[in-house]
Write a structure and sequence with these properties.
Helices cover 44% and strands 15% of the residues. By secondary structure, it is an alpha/beta fold. It has two domains: 182 residues, Flavodoxin domain (Rossmann fold); 145 residues, Alpha-Beta Plaits. The strands form four sheets. It has a five-stranded parallel sheet with strand order 2-1-3-4-7, sandwiched between helices. Helix 1 links the parallel strand 1 and strand 2. Helix 9 crosses helix 10. The two termini are 31 Å apart.
């Protein structure tokens, strides 16, 4: 393989997993006398892209959000120039876990395939599709993984990246992502629902408890500028990618996931919103609710009515958080407040 090319690895990260993978790419490429540069996608959102020369290899390294790549990464891919005889690889980190000595993989969903299609449309030759089961950091769902487990998962993933780099630099193609294709297709409806509804829902599950000292670190470090300060308190907009950076870097451990608010909204949707919509539809004789297209349209309308109500409710909750009693109720009905709900800490060099 002609060593005049170089690797340009573009990564997006919330808590450091994808960054670590990008750094491993650079490390093992350099050890094999191939120049490699890594770039943080969120720092390139408003900047000119680095020059991609003829024959260079580009890499997209990103976490998997809702069985897809985050919108910020998808927008970045849209900005990439047409290929000039360039090759490309995709690495998605995807919620790895460990049960005793058994490493458990995550799922990619459409993350790899949709990205590959978009790059192929720009005439890039896809030489690598590698899922990477880095430690799950989704603190909305579970506590942070213990450090000894994080270390063992990191070590395993680094070994995989070394082998991946060795293969693509020796002209081989790696399509490990295809091994989970049946499972990825099975979660396709979830990935679509997440993209159009779920990610907006999750954006409204975050709040700052009374330990917040208004340091504004979360606002400054948010990779997509999704956090605004309203009434001297962080406010999460619909731009939030649920990357968990703010939760993990808060020096006061003040950022919580409001499990009580989530439960309240789900119950409200199930027992109030959905029945009212169905009742209204039943009164309209010209609508055939048994029609599949109509049925899906009703579901979409119901979902966005739900998001609208949730947004309005979140504004009310944000206003009420200024009152210590209400803040305490929200805080102590959130699992993330308690010590057993660890924050995620990736390994640092």
């Amino acid at each position: 393989m002609d060593k005049k090319y170089k690797i340009l690895a573009f990564y997006f990260t919330g808590t450091g997993n994808a960054k670590a993978a990008a750094e491993w790419i650079g490390k093992y490429a350099n050890e094999r006398s191939v120049e490699a540069e890594i770039f943080n996608i969120d720092e390139l959102r408003t900047e000119e892209l680095p020059k991609i020369n003829k024959g260079d290899i580009i890499g997209i390294i990103s976490p998997t959000h809702g069985f897809n790549l985050p919108p910020v990464v998808l927008r970045f891919i849209s900005r990439l120039p047409k290929s000039n005889k360039n090759k490309a690889f995709i690495i998605n980190t995807r919620a790895g876990m460990k049960l005793h000595k058994l490493f458990l993989p995550g799922l990619s969903g459409i993350a790899q395939y949709w990205t590959a299609l978009r790059l192929k449309f720009k005439s890039y030759e896809i030489i690598g599709m590698q899922p990477l089961d880095m430690p799950s950091n989704w603190l909305i769902i579970h506590p942070g993984i213990k450090q000894n487990v994080v270390k063992s998962i990191f070590n395993r993933c680094e070994t995989k990246i070394e082998g991946f780099v060795d293969k693509i630099l020796n002209g081989k193609k790696v399509y490990k992502a295809l091994l989970s294709l049946p499972f990825d297709l099975a979660v396709l409806p979830v990935s679509i629902l997440y993209f159009f509804v779920g990610r907006f829902f999750l954006a409204k599950t975050m709040f700052a408890n009374f330990d917040c000292n208004s340091c504004r670190l979360c606002e400054k470090k948010c990779p997509v500028n999704a956090i605004k300060i309203i009434d001297k308190r962080p406010f999460w907009t619909f731009n939030c990618e649920s990357c968990m950076r703010c939760v993990n870097i808060c020096p006061q451990r003040a950022i919580e996931t409001s499990h009580s608010f989530v439960a309240m909204m789900i119950v409200t949707y199930s027992l109030v919103i959905s029945p009212l919509i169905l009742l209204g539809i039943s009164k309209l004789d010209f609508i055939n609710a048994d029609n599949l297209i109509i049925d899906n349209l009703i579901s979409i309308i119901a979902a966005y009515i739900f998001l609208t109500i949730m947004m309005l409710s979140y504004y009310i909750v944000h206003f009420l958080l200024r009152f210590r009693f209400f803040n305490a109720i929200m805080t102590y009905t959130s699992l993330s407040k308690f010590k057993f709900w660890r924050r995620y800490k990736g390994l640092k060099e």
